[in-house]
Amino acid sequence: MIRKHSATLHGHRTSFSLEDAFWTELKAIANARETSLAALISEIDDGRDPESNLSSALRLYVLKWLKDRR
């Protein structure tokens, strides 16, 4: 199921939609990296292509993280 989430990035509220599986993995990645979920989302947001949306950037980050762990 896709759910809408909100975060504050650089003092501005934003929202994004993610499937539950991606949300679960994103939280696990933040935990593995010993960082907050907000800090991880902010880092991903800062590094994404300005032409892409945050939801897609988060999904691609999770996919890359999981592939790199094989």
Automatic annotation (TrEMBL):
Hey, what's the signal peptide range on this chain? none
The Ribbon-helix-helix domain covers 3-66
InterPro entries noted in UniProt: RHH_dom (IPR027373), RHH_sf (IPR038268)
Recite the UniProt keywords alphabetically.
Answer: DNA-binding
Question: What's one GO MF term for it?
Answer: DNA binding
Q: Which domain of life is it from?
A: Bacteria
Show the Pfam families listed in the entry.
RHH_4
According to UniProt, the name of this protein is: Putative DNA-binding ribbon-helix-helix protein
- Species this chain originates from: Rhizobium paranaense
